[in-house]
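Entry 14. Ran structure prediction on the chain below.
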Amino acid sequence: MSSHREAPEIAKDPVADSTDVYAFVSPDAPDTVTLIANYIPLQQPDGGPNFYEFGTDVLYDINIDNTGDGKPDITYQFRFTTTVRNPKSFLYNTGPIESLDSSSWNRPQTYRVIRRQAGRSREMAKGLYCPPVNVGPRSTPNYADLAAAAVHDLPGGGKVFAGQRADAFHVDLGSVFDLGGLRPFNDKHLIPLAAMDGINAVQAYNVHTIAIQVPKSDLVRGAVPTDPLAPNATIGVWTSASRQRSQMFNPGTGRYTGTGPYAQVSRLGNPLFNEVLVPMAKKDLWNATPPSEEYRFVSYVRRPELAGLLPVLYPGVFPKLAAYGKNRKDLEAILLTGIPTGGVDGFQNFTGTTPADMLRLNVAVPPAAAGQENPIGLVAGDAAGFPNGRRIVDDVVAIELRAVAGATIPLVDKSYTPDAAAGQLTDGTTNTNADLLAAFPYLGLPGGGYQTKPGTTSAA
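Output, structure tokens:
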């Protein structure tokens, strides 16, 4: 979770496994939108000598739908190249890496960025350096400076970054997958335990981040809207990774070589969609299916398994949810179509009736002031937060737990009064990884291999 190892096949292919997607109006540059796609889940900072890196045989795409059909109208594509400078050395670095072009960095990665729209491709930049991973104070001294040097300007405005970052998602995996346990509500569980704070299972792990910041005018149809109710104010965002259909093993090199056309092997829009809503037998199929064919999975949103389990796992806590026999139109709106005008005063992020799992960002909603964001987002009155896009600070586990428990049913069914517990659910965790940055790419510096102890992390 959010999408770390969420399906059987993609769990075997971490370099193509998307973990989280974020889309938000940049708080320090409100005429731009920041799009972030994280890959390679649960990276131990000390995972050498073959440290984590992007796949050179993977197509990484960040997709934007601005016509509401669940198909990409704009795609930012990233292709990576790895160079081995000294093939006789087993080392990632042969001395301190003090700059991105340091000769002591034995395995640097570079990338190019391609923008695709209306059947045309335009190379925006090439030969851009990723930063090295955070090996330790001897190998990567002044890591913050190294990482900052890997933020590249794009022609026409905007910025891009690709490299290792601290994972900012937080979730109590150990409890959630132990029969749906939420530690703060342990004493209410069918198999009760003592109530306690949640434990962030993702603490101390890194991910690999692709982040791009572009002007709003590059993403919307027509003039940039300033009215949140404008019909062109909302864009849909998701990430996808693709591999060539055939993989051939070459015993002469000990490597696989891809052949044939590319096929999608993973995708991610809303957090926890495949993780929690799609049944085990369909998870791999979902990863290979485009959002435009989401109709094949709508039934799992209308009747989510977890909504039926909550009253069983927490007896007497959710009687109204247990008695609610209607399809979950609220979850359809939040996850598949966007919220239409009238559901929330002065707000909408509706993209049309085509169901598609995408983050839906209304770019006309101004960002909350730094430090003033409500992590419960739109549900708590902060219209700049999830499910209006997704900010790094949004507590999507708590938000989606409350939604599944019925807190959002009144959006579409005014006759329903949620159970009291529905608006209180949380797994009890916060982001206990590295501090977020105030500027692009916003995610915190990755934990260093030398500095990190099991269960803790430090970028210093």
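The first helix runs from residue 143 to 149. Will compare against last week's run tomorrow.
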